[in-house]
Design brief:
The strands form 10 sheets. The protein has a 4-stranded antiparallel beta sheet with strand order 3-4-5-6, with no helix packed on it. Strands 10-37-36-35 form a 4-stranded antiparallel beta sheet, with no helix packed on it. It is 0% helix and 46% strand. The protein is an all-beta fold.
Length: 413
């Protein structure tokens, strides 16, 4: 590959200083793809070149990626006046929008050994050092490196790692706690091992775990539990008088509120627990009160910068309360532009907007509750998202886990 200018022609150098060499497949055309150069190869898909660094990236057909290149046999490439890049392949026409930098897909493919280990990332946690933990429905964990790629793969059944679905992560001190289908475990990332935390009773399913007020709060199907960081067991939450107000409360989502209470998402609504007084208040749907919560299981709870609670439900959309943890709600659902009433996770960005993963794409909800929906044509190739699967990265990016992989969102792009 050569660069031609007023001073003549010179070979394009890669990062190591050596000339960039093209594959043996014939080059049928070139196009500017948003500052990158795309070279269409007759029998090799597309080769993307970064002119500034000389780095190249092969873009090939992957049968596991419905939003990918239709075929590796490419006959033509053109960029239109709107900046869209069009590719004519043996199996149809493909279109790429280089200006779409908001969404990036990190997908699982059985054809690639370097991608995600599983197709269903149920739990995602961004660590302060930039690493990302991904836990799967089929078990196992990927540790993603800050610059991309899998830094470590922990397989179920090895090093004490449990079999079954991984449902949540929570960093606490020098360890990461992991909620899973069969209980709770303390994960040692350096050693690649997991140690079980003992739970009471026979129902061991744990939905979520939260480090708050110097304790671990464990949201289990059998009720709300607490544990000491580093402790070997979790016990039912009890008041000073021995009462256990959250016994039997299916505690699916945990979030500390600005009112000093623990907000607990349940199949029937929200329970607010005051750890000091042990008072437990229930918020539920009331068909006679339009300012109550909408019907449906509560899947996720988020508080914005003003302390407004955002409550995501399965079937009822999003309920947004007043500042400071107010409990009079405005419902944002499909009628307001939400792509689905089934909400998986709510995450805030640095500009005050809240992003929602749903059963039919992703939505951005502004502070004034205006909704902007995103789907396949916008670069969101994961069609539906798992409940409570996602995280905010140290740089302010958002990650959502769904069927087929992860969607990375750059809110400022």
């Amino acid at each position: 590959l050569w660069r031609v200018g007023e001073g003549g022609a010179a070979p394009v150098a890669g990062p190591d200083g050596t000339p960039v060499r093209l594959p043996s497949a014939g080059v049928v055309g070139l196009a500017d793809a948003g500052g990158k150069i795309w070279l269409a190869l007759q029998r090799g898909g597309v080769l993307e070149l970064d002119p500034a660094s000389g780095r190249t990236l092969a873009i090939r057909h992957d049968a596991a990626d419905p939003a990918g290149l239709p075929d590796d046999v490419v006959f033509a490439i053109r960029r239109d006046r709107a900046g869209l890049v069009w590719l004519g392949t043996r199996k149809g026409l493909a279109r790429h929008d280089p200006a779409n930098r908001t969404f990036t897909s990190i997908r699982h493919s059985p054809l690639r050994t370097t991608g995600l280990a599983g197709a269903d990332p149920m739990a995602v946690e961004a660590l302060p050092d930039g690493r990302v933990l991904v836990g799967y429905l089929s078990g196992g964990i990927d540790v993603l490196a800050p610059g991309g790629g899998v830094a470590r793969r922990l397989k179920p059944g090895e090093g004490g790692l449990p079999d079954g679905a991984i449902l949540d992560f929570e960093p606490a001190g020098d360890a990461v706690y992991m909620a899973h289908q069969h209980g709770l475990a303390r994960l040692d990332l350096a050693a690649g091992t997991a140690a079980a935390v003992a739970l009471p009773g026979t129902d061991r399913l744990v939905h979520s775990v939260l480090s708050w007020q110097g304790r671990l709060w464990v949201g289990a199907r059998a009720g709300l539990l607490v544990a000491e960081p580093g402790g070997a067991e979790a016990r039912p939450f009890r008041c000073a008088d021995g009462a256990s107000p959250a016994a039997g409360l299916n505690s699916m989502a945990l979030r500390p509120g600005p009112d000093g209470r623990l907000w607990i998402g349940t199949p029937a609504g929200v329970a607010r627990l005051d750890p000091g007084t042990c008072a437990l208040e229930t918020l539920a749907h009331d068909p006679k009160d339009p300012a109550s919560l909408p019907p449906g299981l509560v899947s996720t709870i988020h508080f914005d910068g003003a302390g407004r609670p955002w409550v995501g439900t399965m079937g009822g959309g999003i309920a947004v309360g007043g500042p400071g943890g107010g409990t009079r709600f405005t419902t944002v659902g499909p009628a307001a532009g939400l792509p689905s009433g089934n909400v998986g996770l709510l995450l805030g960005d640095g500009a005050g907007a809240v992003w929602a993963s749903t059963a039919d794409g992703i939505a951005r909800v502004s502070p004034d509750l205006a909704v902007q929906a995103f789907g396949g044509p916008d670069g969101v190739s994961v069609p539906a998202y798992w409940v409570r699967s996602g995280a905010v990265t140290p740089s302010g990016g958002l990650l959502f886990g769904g069927g087929g992989g992860l969607t990375a969102v750059d809110p400022g792009a």
